[in-house]
Design goal:
Layout (H helix, E strand, L loop, with lengths): L13 E7 L2 E8 L5 E6 L10 H9 L2 E6 L18 H15 L17 E5 L1 H12 L6 E5 L8 H14 L4 H10 L27 H13 L2 H13 L4 H5 L5 E6 L7 H11 L2 E5 L6 H4 L1 H15 L5
Parallel strand pairs: 3-4, 3-5, 5-6, 6-7, 7-8
Antiparallel strand pairs: 1-2, 2-4
Keywords: Hydrolase
InterPro entries: AB_hydrolase_1, AB_hydrolase_fold, Carboxylesterase_BioH
Organism: Streptomyces boncukensis
Protein backbone atom coordinates (compact mmCIF):
# COMPACT_ATOMS: atom_id res chain seq x y z
CA UNK A 1 0.00 0.00 0.00
CA UNK A 2 3.01 2.32 0.39
CA UNK A 3 5.42 3.49 -2.27
CA UNK A 4 8.93 4.07 -0.87
CA UNK A 5 10.33 7.52 -1.67
CA UNK A 6 13.74 5.99 -2.51
CA UNK A 7 15.58 2.68 -2.11
CA UNK A 8 19.19 3.48 -1.17
CA UNK A 9 19.80 3.07 2.55
CA UNK A 10 20.91 6.26 4.33
CA UNK A 11 24.39 6.58 5.78
CA UNK A 12 24.83 4.39 8.83
CA UNK A 13 21.89 2.09 8.02
CA UNK A 14 22.18 -1.61 7.23
CA UNK A 15 20.05 -4.48 6.00
CA UNK A 16 20.35 -7.91 7.59
CA UNK A 17 18.36 -10.88 8.88
CA UNK A 18 17.37 -10.56 12.54
CA UNK A 19 17.28 -13.85 14.46
CA UNK A 20 14.35 -14.34 16.84
CA UNK A 21 12.76 -17.19 18.75
CA UNK A 22 10.35 -17.56 15.79
CA UNK A 23 12.87 -17.50 12.98
CA UNK A 24 14.71 -14.89 10.97
CA UNK A 25 13.21 -11.68 9.59
CA UNK A 26 14.61 -9.35 6.94
CA UNK A 27 15.12 -5.91 8.48
CA UNK A 28 16.63 -2.51 7.83
CA UNK A 29 18.11 -0.72 10.82
CA UNK A 30 19.61 2.68 11.56
CA UNK A 31 20.73 4.49 14.70
CA UNK A 32 21.68 3.75 18.29
CA UNK A 33 19.14 3.41 21.13
CA UNK A 34 20.11 6.55 23.04
CA UNK A 35 16.44 7.28 23.71
CA UNK A 36 15.01 3.89 22.76
CA UNK A 37 14.23 1.52 19.91
CA UNK A 38 11.38 1.72 17.41
CA UNK A 39 10.04 -1.48 15.83
CA UNK A 40 8.23 -0.67 12.57
CA UNK A 41 5.69 -3.07 10.99
CA UNK A 42 4.45 -2.37 7.42
CA UNK A 43 0.96 -2.79 6.03
CA UNK A 44 -0.80 -4.95 3.46
CA UNK A 45 1.44 -5.64 0.40
CA UNK A 46 4.14 -3.52 2.07
CA UNK A 47 7.68 -4.06 3.29
CA UNK A 48 10.45 -2.61 5.42
CA UNK A 49 11.24 -0.18 2.59
CA UNK A 50 8.01 1.68 3.36
CA UNK A 51 9.87 3.17 6.35
CA UNK A 52 13.17 3.91 4.60
CA UNK A 53 12.52 7.64 4.68
CA UNK A 54 12.05 7.50 8.46
CA UNK A 55 15.32 5.73 9.27
CA UNK A 56 17.70 8.71 9.24
CA UNK A 57 15.34 11.20 10.96
CA UNK A 58 14.56 8.72 13.73
CA UNK A 59 18.26 7.91 14.16
CA UNK A 60 19.13 11.62 14.27
CA UNK A 61 16.59 12.02 17.07
CA UNK A 62 18.34 9.34 19.16
CA UNK A 63 16.28 6.28 18.31
CA UNK A 64 17.31 2.94 16.91
CA UNK A 65 14.82 2.33 14.08
CA UNK A 66 14.23 -1.25 12.94
CA UNK A 67 11.88 -1.79 9.98
CA UNK A 68 10.75 -5.36 9.30
CA UNK A 69 9.47 -7.56 6.51
CA UNK A 70 6.86 -9.60 8.41
CA UNK A 71 6.31 -13.28 7.79
CA UNK A 72 5.31 -13.90 4.17
CA UNK A 73 6.16 -10.38 3.00
CA UNK A 74 8.93 -9.56 0.53
CA UNK A 75 12.34 -10.80 1.74
CA UNK A 76 11.29 -12.69 4.86
CA UNK A 77 9.25 -15.38 3.13
CA UNK A 78 7.06 -17.99 4.75
CA UNK A 79 4.99 -21.15 4.24
CA UNK A 80 2.15 -21.48 1.74
CA UNK A 81 -0.51 -21.87 4.41
CA UNK A 82 -3.09 -19.26 5.41
CA UNK A 83 -3.01 -20.46 9.02
CA UNK A 84 0.62 -19.38 9.27
CA UNK A 85 -0.57 -15.80 8.78
CA UNK A 86 -3.42 -15.77 11.27
CA UNK A 87 -3.35 -12.56 13.28
CA UNK A 88 -2.43 -14.48 16.42
CA UNK A 89 0.64 -15.93 14.68
CA UNK A 90 1.75 -12.54 13.38
CA UNK A 91 1.28 -11.06 16.86
CA UNK A 92 3.59 -13.74 18.26
CA UNK A 93 6.13 -12.79 15.59
CA UNK A 94 5.95 -9.16 16.75
CA UNK A 95 6.56 -10.25 20.33
CA UNK A 96 9.53 -12.35 19.21
CA UNK A 97 10.96 -9.37 17.34
CA UNK A 98 10.52 -7.22 20.43
CA UNK A 99 12.27 -9.87 22.49
CA UNK A 100 15.23 -9.97 20.11
CA UNK A 101 15.56 -6.20 20.18
CA UNK A 102 15.64 -6.07 23.97
CA UNK A 103 18.27 -8.80 24.38
CA UNK A 104 21.89 -7.68 24.57
CA UNK A 105 24.24 -9.39 22.16
CA UNK A 106 21.55 -10.84 19.88
CA UNK A 107 23.38 -12.44 16.91
CA UNK A 108 23.17 -10.28 13.83
CA UNK A 109 21.91 -7.21 15.69
CA UNK A 110 23.44 -4.33 17.61
CA UNK A 111 23.24 -4.76 21.38
CA UNK A 112 20.64 -2.72 23.17
CA UNK A 113 19.80 -2.22 26.82
CA UNK A 114 18.37 -5.38 28.40
CA UNK A 115 14.89 -4.86 29.73
CA UNK A 116 14.19 -1.73 27.63
CA UNK A 117 11.23 -2.63 25.40
CA UNK A 118 10.79 -1.06 21.97
CA UNK A 119 8.20 1.43 20.84
CA UNK A 120 5.93 -0.56 18.50
CA UNK A 121 4.53 1.06 15.36
CA UNK A 122 2.20 -0.65 12.90
CA UNK A 123 1.04 0.86 9.61
CA UNK A 124 -2.42 -0.09 8.29
CA UNK A 125 -2.70 -3.92 8.49
CA UNK A 126 0.51 -3.80 10.52
CA UNK A 127 -1.36 -1.67 13.03
CA UNK A 128 -3.97 -4.39 13.52
CA UNK A 129 -1.15 -6.89 14.12
CA UNK A 130 0.63 -4.46 16.47
CA UNK A 131 -2.60 -3.96 18.43
CA UNK A 132 -3.02 -7.73 18.78
CA UNK A 133 0.57 -8.05 20.04
CA UNK A 134 0.08 -5.24 22.56
CA UNK A 135 -3.17 -6.79 23.81
CA UNK A 136 -1.39 -10.11 24.29
CA UNK A 137 1.61 -8.73 26.22
CA UNK A 138 1.56 -4.94 26.75
CA UNK A 139 4.55 -5.08 29.06
CA UNK A 140 6.74 -6.04 26.10
CA UNK A 141 6.40 -2.58 24.53
CA UNK A 142 7.18 0.98 25.64
CA UNK A 143 4.31 2.37 23.57
CA UNK A 144 2.04 1.60 20.63
CA UNK A 145 1.61 3.78 17.53
CA UNK A 146 -1.25 3.01 15.16
CA UNK A 147 -0.43 4.64 11.84
CA UNK A 148 -3.25 4.91 9.29
CA UNK A 149 -5.03 2.11 11.12
CA UNK A 150 -8.58 2.29 12.40
CA UNK A 151 -10.64 0.53 15.06
CA UNK A 152 -12.05 -2.31 12.95
CA UNK A 153 -12.44 -3.33 9.29
CA UNK A 154 -11.49 -0.95 6.47
CA UNK A 155 -14.07 1.28 4.80
CA UNK A 156 -16.79 -0.19 2.58
CA UNK A 157 -15.07 0.96 -0.62
CA UNK A 158 -11.79 -0.63 0.46
CA UNK A 159 -13.56 -3.82 1.47
CA UNK A 160 -14.85 -4.04 -2.11
CA UNK A 161 -11.34 -3.60 -3.50
CA UNK A 162 -9.86 -6.16 -1.15
CA UNK A 163 -12.62 -8.64 -2.00
CA UNK A 164 -11.86 -8.22 -5.71
CA UNK A 165 -8.18 -8.81 -5.01
CA UNK A 166 -8.91 -11.97 -3.02
CA UNK A 167 -11.00 -13.27 -5.91
CA UNK A 168 -8.20 -12.53 -8.37
CA UNK A 169 -5.60 -14.25 -6.19
CA UNK A 170 -7.76 -17.37 -6.21
CA UNK A 171 -7.86 -17.61 -10.02
CA UNK A 172 -4.86 -15.74 -11.46
CA UNK A 173 -1.08 -15.84 -11.16
CA UNK A 174 0.71 -13.17 -9.15
CA UNK A 175 2.11 -11.72 -12.38
CA UNK A 176 -1.34 -11.60 -13.97
CA UNK A 177 -2.78 -9.90 -10.89
CA UNK A 178 0.03 -7.36 -10.95
CA UNK A 179 -0.59 -6.54 -14.61
CA UNK A 180 -4.33 -6.24 -13.99
CA UNK A 181 -3.75 -3.84 -11.09
CA UNK A 182 -1.41 -1.78 -13.25
CA UNK A 183 -3.97 -1.57 -16.02
CA UNK A 184 -6.63 -0.45 -13.54
CA UNK A 185 -4.19 2.00 -11.96
CA UNK A 186 -4.69 0.18 -8.67
CA UNK A 187 -1.24 -1.17 -8.11
CA UNK A 188 0.10 -1.88 -4.58
CA UNK A 189 1.54 1.63 -4.79
CA UNK A 190 -1.12 3.93 -3.41
CA UNK A 191 -2.84 5.94 -6.14
CA UNK A 192 -2.02 9.62 -5.85
CA UNK A 193 0.78 9.16 -3.34
CA UNK A 194 3.82 11.40 -3.65
CA UNK A 195 6.81 9.24 -4.72
CA UNK A 196 9.39 11.61 -3.21
CA UNK A 197 10.47 12.61 0.31
CA UNK A 198 9.36 15.94 1.80
CA UNK A 199 9.84 18.73 -0.70
CA UNK A 200 12.05 16.66 -3.02
CA UNK A 201 9.82 16.32 -6.06
CA UNK A 202 6.40 16.60 -7.65
CA UNK A 203 3.34 15.60 -5.67
CA UNK A 204 -0.18 14.36 -6.32
CA UNK A 205 -1.99 12.07 -8.75
CA UNK A 206 -0.12 11.34 -11.94
CA UNK A 207 3.31 12.05 -10.43
CA UNK A 208 5.93 10.04 -12.26
CA UNK A 209 7.18 6.90 -10.52
CA UNK A 210 10.97 6.57 -11.00
CA UNK A 211 11.92 3.39 -12.94
CA UNK A 212 13.84 1.87 -10.03
CA UNK A 213 10.83 2.31 -7.71
CA UNK A 214 8.50 0.86 -10.34
CA UNK A 215 10.74 -2.20 -10.76
CA UNK A 216 10.96 -2.60 -6.99
CA UNK A 217 7.16 -2.53 -6.58
CA UNK A 218 6.76 -5.36 -9.08
CA UNK A 219 9.60 -7.36 -7.50
CA UNK A 220 8.12 -6.92 -4.04
CA UNK A 221 4.64 -7.91 -5.16
CA UNK A 222 5.89 -11.11 -6.79
CA UNK A 223 7.93 -12.01 -3.68
CA UNK A 224 4.91 -11.88 -1.35
CA UNK A 225 3.47 -15.26 -0.35
CA UNK A 226 -0.06 -15.48 -1.83
CA UNK A 227 -1.41 -17.19 1.29
CA UNK A 228 -0.24 -14.23 3.36
CA UNK A 229 -2.03 -11.80 1.05
CA UNK A 230 -5.25 -13.80 1.33
CA UNK A 231 -5.02 -14.01 5.13
CA UNK A 232 -4.14 -10.33 5.41
CA UNK A 233 -6.97 -9.32 3.12
CA UNK A 234 -9.45 -11.26 5.19
CA UNK A 235 -8.22 -9.52 8.33
CA UNK A 236 -8.75 -6.13 6.71
CA UNK A 237 -12.37 -6.87 5.85
CA UNK A 238 -13.26 -8.82 8.99
CA UNK A 239 -11.41 -7.16 11.89
CA UNK A 240 -13.59 -6.53 14.98
CA UNK A 241 -13.44 -3.33 17.00
CA UNK A 242 -11.03 -3.92 19.91
CA UNK A 243 -10.65 -0.29 20.91
CA UNK A 244 -12.16 -0.75 24.37
CA UNK A 245 -9.77 -3.62 25.11
CA UNK A 246 -6.81 -1.47 24.10
CA UNK A 247 -8.06 1.51 26.10
CA UNK A 248 -8.04 -0.63 29.24
CA UNK A 249 -4.28 -1.20 28.99
CA UNK A 250 -1.70 0.96 30.81
CA UNK A 251 0.14 1.49 27.51
CA UNK A 252 0.73 4.91 25.90
CA UNK A 253 -0.89 5.04 22.45
CA UNK A 254 -0.38 7.40 19.51
CA UNK A 255 -2.77 7.55 16.54
CA UNK A 256 -1.07 8.93 13.42
CA UNK A 257 -2.50 9.40 9.94
CA UNK A 258 -2.44 11.60 6.89
CA UNK A 259 -4.85 14.47 6.49
CA UNK A 260 -6.98 12.23 4.25
CA UNK A 261 -7.39 8.45 4.23
CA UNK A 262 -9.65 6.22 2.15
CA UNK A 263 -8.92 3.06 4.14
CA UNK A 264 -10.16 4.43 7.48
CA UNK A 265 -11.80 7.88 7.27
CA UNK A 266 -9.97 10.52 9.29
CA UNK A 267 -13.03 11.33 11.48
CA UNK A 268 -13.11 7.65 12.45
CA UNK A 269 -9.44 7.83 13.44
CA UNK A 270 -10.14 11.00 15.45
CA UNK A 271 -12.94 9.24 17.32
CA UNK A 272 -10.78 6.18 17.98
CA UNK A 273 -8.04 8.35 19.47
CA UNK A 274 -10.58 9.94 21.82
CA UNK A 275 -11.83 6.54 22.93
CA UNK A 276 -8.24 5.47 23.60
CA UNK A 277 -7.23 8.67 25.36
CA UNK A 278 -4.37 8.63 22.85
CA UNK A 279 -2.20 11.31 21.34
CA UNK A 280 -3.45 12.24 17.87
CA UNK A 281 -1.28 13.46 14.99
CA UNK A 282 -2.34 14.15 11.40
CA UNK A 283 0.46 14.82 8.91
CA UNK A 284 -0.67 17.60 6.54
CA UNK A 285 -0.64 16.97 2.80
CA UNK A 286 -0.49 13.18 3.07
CA UNK A 287 -2.83 10.25 2.53
CA UNK A 288 -2.68 6.67 3.72
CA UNK A 289 1.14 6.51 3.93
CA UNK A 290 2.58 9.57 5.70
CA UNK A 291 5.65 7.47 6.49
CA UNK A 292 6.51 7.41 2.77
CA UNK A 293 4.89 10.64 1.59
CA UNK A 294 6.36 13.06 4.14
CA UNK A 295 8.81 11.02 6.22
CA UNK A 296 10.59 13.91 7.93
CA UNK A 297 7.38 15.55 9.08
CA UNK A 298 6.07 12.16 10.19
CA UNK A 299 9.29 11.45 12.09
CA UNK A 300 8.89 14.74 13.98
CA UNK A 301 5.44 13.68 15.17
CA UNK A 302 6.68 10.24 16.19
CA UNK A 303 9.76 11.41 18.06
CA UNK A 304 7.85 14.12 19.93
CA UNK A 305 5.69 11.36 21.42
CA UNK A 306 8.52 8.94 22.10
CA UNK A 307 10.78 11.57 23.67
CA UNK A 308 8.20 12.24 26.37
CA UNK A 309 8.28 8.53 27.20
CA UNK A 310 12.04 8.04 26.75
CA UNK A 311 13.87 10.99 28.32
CA UNK A 312 17.47 11.44 27.29
CA UNK A 313 19.80 9.59 29.68
CA UNK A 314 22.03 11.69 31.86
Amino acid sequence: MSRPPFLDLPAGARAYRLSTARGEFAVQECGAPERGTALLLPGFTGSKEDFIGLLAPLADAGFRAVAVDPRGQYETGGPDSEQAYAQSELALDALALAGALTTAGEPGAAATVPGSPPHLLGHSLGGLVARAAALRAPERFASLTLMSCGPAAVSASQQQRVTLLLSALGSMSMEAVWQAMRELDQSPAEAGQAPYPDGAGPDGPGARVPPDIDAFLRRRWLANVPAQLVAGGRQLIGEPDRTDELAALPLPVHVVSGSVDDAWPVPQLDAMALRLGARRSAVPGTGHSPNAERPRTTAEALTAFWRELSPCPG
